[in-house]
Amino acid sequence: MKRWTADWPFLGLVGLLVVVALAMALFAGTPFGLSRYLANAIGQLAAFAVLALSLDLIWGYLGILSLGHGLFFAVGGYVVAMYLLKHSFVVTGTVPDFLQFMGWKDFPFYWAGFDFFPYALLAAVVVTLLIAGVFGYVSFRSRVSGVYFAIITQALVYVAMLLMFRNDTGFGGNNGMTGFTVMFGWPMGTSGMITGLAVASLVVLAGVLVGCRWLVGSRFGALMLATRDDETRLRTLGYETLRLKLTVWCLSAVIAMIAGMLYVPQVGIINPRLLSPELSLEIAVWVAIGGRGHLVGAVIGALLVNAVKFWLSSAAPDVWPFILSGLIVLVVLVFPNGLIDLARLKLVRPMGPKRIAAEVGEAR
Amino acid sequence: MAMTALLVDGLSVRFGSFQAIDDLSLAIDYGEVRAVIGPNGAGKTTLLDVISGITRPKQGRVLFDGAHEIVGRSEAAIARAGIRRKFQKPSVFEGLSVRQHIAIGADVGFRSRLDTPALEDRVGEVLETVRLADKADALAGALSHGQKQWLEIGMVLASEPKVLMLDEPVAGLTDEETERTASLVRALKRPDRAIVVVEHDMDFVERIADRVTVLHEGRTLFEGSMDRVRADPAVVEVYLGR
After folding, report:
1. Does the keyword Secreted apply (chain B) (predicted)?
2. pLDDT on residue A359
């Protein structure tokens, strides 16, 4: 791997994220500032990009495909929603809809302390590590891998969705949770809060990107690639790959959880649909389109696909599934390494159908 | 006085109804280069799989260094004990450089103890031995088949193993490359190291092996020097048929 100082796409993207974050912070409230809609969209896109990075870390660099990363995303989302509702209740006395709906007088006991954000954050990390740790340990220990692992993760997220659809679990049931009015003592929905959340998302994205770059460029990162390329070979060189896989798997889960914590305050609602298999599959599509095994690719893939989705879901919601499917077919057939293929072709020589065929043939 | 590096005792491995190894016993001493030959399906690779912990036998034991039972221990634990193995199909990490391979092979641990001068020296030394010094920064995926074979030998060599197992090290190599591999294997021979080579190329085996074990249907058919192997009527029959 190139030294980070010579990794121009990486430096460029981090620079861009920082510049956008700074500009948004500086120009907020002035006539040069972004509209609330646009600022909010950028914030959500950044949260999705963090989610894409979490999947790229284990899929692109460790060769483990998870089709259930929505689970960890939702853990972050649900916990931050619990914080927001409890905090809003403490500040304004608003009783959450789902409590009234269930006819409950008080929050369930396990909501205790969630109005204190550090505690909520800790709870989210612990729950994520518990789920990821137990599931990862059992799977990796019995050497479940490849498509079987992917299917089990998909089943896991589906089971979680069914669980959360139940109204008596105390997490809002099928209606989910909404009506967040206060965050950190400030009212939600103001342009200041929207900009603040978007800037925070961009900063976290830049931070996660730098952190991942450091990890994959380290010796540990080399061992991740070695595990991906030939795990038995690495094991018979004396490395316990179980530990390595479990570590990266848990790290990836925590990053996905953080993405969920950024996302939910910005959309203002969480419901079990976040746990539907579609979202978890879509994350893999973002990464595949951007270029798996490339951090910059994963971010660009998530930003691009979701920007198109934002635009189309208001302009022409019916065609979105076709566009998405078309992109998948294109990537699978023509650009197996995603947009990275496209970038390489352009840099090397002018594009022509023959060239593309030859290059892609080699890449396979 | 040759001490036993590996003692295989009453080993049996079954895959479904196929008896891959059938009550096999053999001893390999420090200081020797032992070739294991035999027709396809004789159990050669399965034997290496058992010794490196990849396959669990139905029964039998494998003692390392005269005392340590290795059946039932993990691949990684066996490797750390000093038993290293090159696979039949060259197994390298396509996305890593040649230098990174040797460093990974030399140093076991997740932390970065890698940039130390001692390790740099070791990597350089191994690269010289397997003659890949000029390819140090190339990606393994870009190497030729022969170079991949040497890279994998270098990777398992880097930790100074006590037992070095090479599964078909010259398969698919040119005559010149085979020649180089033969002198490499001879150069790796040391009084405190046992080298086990599984190979089909009889001329290669003749050049490198001190002793030859002929396996047939999971059992030892013959054990001795190569010229006696060639003269043995039972071996000739198994190899040439009737």
Report:
1. no
2. 46
